[in-house]
Design goal:
The structure holds two protein chains of two kinds.
Chain A lengths: L7 E4 L10 E3 L5 E4 L4 E4 L9 E3 L7 E7 L9 E7 L9 E7 L6 E7 L2 E9 L9 E7 L2 E7 L5 E8 L8 E5 L18 E4 L4 E3 L2
Antiparallel strand pairs in A: 1-16, 2-5, 3-4, 4-15, 5-14, 6-11, 7-8, 7-14, 8-9, 9-10, 11-12, 12-13
Chain B lengths: L1 E8 L12 E4 L5 H6 L3 E7 L3 E7 L2 H8 L4 E3 L14 H14 L3 H8 L7 H8 L3 E2 L2 E3 L4 E3 L4 E2 L4 H7 L2
Antiparallel strand pairs in B: 1-2, 1-4, 1-5, 3-4, 6-9, 7-8
The chains are: A mainly beta, B alpha+beta.
């Protein structure tokens, strides 16, 4: 399946700081940005969206893409978020996440006040690799997650309908810690230095 | 084809593994088996931190899933099953599940009676008539189901998707 044609490049994160339409989440820790990667030092143990765009998209149709160009040996997952809460203290919305490092598992989640609930079945047929692209698609109340090695040919990983939240949404990115660089294993992101990809976002509203 | 009442749990693998603010359905552990059968599953969240799920898979896989205490197989396979065809004890178990989920005996009786005059579809539609919006309590590090009442995804929608 090919990506929609009516897409626009939102940001390629090719500068040393976030673009003016992006911001980070209070409570998610300190973050630095280089020309080759985005790094977060999560000092609070928070698990909110790490960075998000302050523009609202949708509500009916939204596509958010990210390219993963690097991740640590113990990196755990990449996650694309569609969120409705501007403060992000207790976000509502949806997320598509793909496990890294051979875990081979893609899942869609509904987010309610910061609680993540899986919707639909997972997909275990994808082995994540550096250079992969990930896409969350919203068409009305149907959410679909796709994976791709080239950004052109896409594999549908999981899809389901949920009309709890209609949008519009902000787009967020959550890439949790890399334990190899100082994180603590388990259910806590506290203290981890997150070394993750070089996301490219393309969006059609 | 089978219907299950499934519990949520914290994921132990895959994305968000081990995260206290995350729930996945226990049924998802069997997704590889279901897909290997050429099958599928889908679900709607209901009251009581559970979901009603429909699974299309081989008999062997359905039996394996039913052995999981977190995946309780319901005593019918299709929504048009008249519950009068079930043994009394099976209907009582469904009523108990409704009560355990959070419905009062008064509203159970008012909406579905003793289940002897309705179909499986009507029973499941009542089961999926409301749920609480979850939230993550950062103090206790638990997902708490005490939020506003919200609508459930339609049982018929789940049934259609997994035909």
């Amino acid at each position: 399946m090919a990506a929609p044609l009516n897409t626009t490049l939102l940001d390629d994160f090719n500068r040393g700081t976030l673009g003016s339409t992006w911001t980070t989440v209070l409570g998610s820790g300190l973050k630095t940005y280089s020309s080759t990667q985005v790094t977060t030092v999560d000092t609070t143990g928070g698990d909110n969206i790490d960075v998000y765009n302050v523009t609202l998209f949708g509500p009916t149709n939204i596509d958010a893409y990210a390219k993963l160009t690097t991740y640590g040996a113990t990196g755990t997952w990449i996650e694309l978020n569609l969120i409705s809460d501007t403060t992000l203290g207790s976000p509502d919305g949806y997320a598509y996440a793909e496990a890294l490092n051979g875990a081979n598992n893609s899942r869609l989640f509904r987010i309610d006040n910061g609680a993540y609930t899986q919707i639909g079945s997972s997909y275990t047929g994808w082995t994540a690799a550096v250079g992969d692209y990930y896409w969350i698609e919203k068409r009305g109340s149907t959410f679909t997650g796709y994976n791709s090695t080239d950004g052109v040919n896409w594999t549908q990983a999981t899809s389901t309908s949920d009309s709890t939240y209609t949008g519009p949404f902000y787009i967020g990115l959550n890439l949790p810690y890399d334990a190899a660089s100082g994180g603590i294993a388990g259910d806590d992101l506290r203290g981890g230095t997150v070394t993750f990809g070089y996301p490219v976002w393309l969006v059609s509203a | 084809m089978a219907w299950f009442l499934v519990s949520y749990k914290t994921p132990t693998s895959g994305p968000r593994a081990g995260m206290a603010n995350t729930r996945v359905l226990a049924l998802d552990d069997y997704t590889p088996l279901i897909l290997a059968d050429g099958g599928a599953w889908d679900a709607t969240e209901v009251l009581g931190n559970k979901a009603l799920a429909k699974v299309r898979a081989s008999v062997a896989t359905l039996t394996t899933i039913a052995d999981d205490p977190l995946c309780v197989r319901l005593p019918f396979d299709t929504l048009d099953t008249p519950l009068a065809s079930l043994p009394l004890v099976a209907r009582q178990r469904i009523r108990t599940a409704l009560k355990n989920a959070g419905y009062t005996l008064l509203e159970i009786t008012a909406n579905v009676g003793d289940l002897s005059t309705i179909t499986a579809r009507e029973a499941l539609e009542f089961f999926a008539s409301r749920r609480h919006k979850p939230r993550f309590d950062t103090v206790t590090q638990q997902i708490v189901l005490d939020g506003t009442i919200v609508a459930c995804r339609s049982v018929l929608d789940v049934d259609r998707v997994t035909v």
